[in-house]
Specification:
The chain is an all-alpha fold. It is 71% helix and 0% strand.
């Protein structure tokens, strides 16, 4: 594992110290970082998918239904 340091106001550190018997602060911080990273990665995926979709040609209304029906009928 790598080490990451975080500065917090003295009051926050004191409050964390008072609750350290009930909260595993390093684990809480790791989970929070992972949640944020996952959120950002999901957002980036949406942006990429949107960019790919915007490059596709627009189909006439009913095209998708017709293609699905043709595929179903072929089986």
């Amino acid at each position: 594992m790598s080490v990451v340091s975080v500065k917090v106001p003295r009051e926050v550190k004191e409050r964390m110290e008072r609750t350290k018997d009930r909260v595993d602060w390093p684990e809480e911080i790791r989970r929070s970082i992972m949640r944020k990273l996952e959120e950002l990665e999901r957002e980036q995926t949406i942006v990429e998918v949107d960019r790919m979709l915007s490059k596709l040609p627009i189909q006439a209304k009913g095209t998708v239904s017709r293609l699905v029906r043709e595929d179903r009928d072929a089986h």
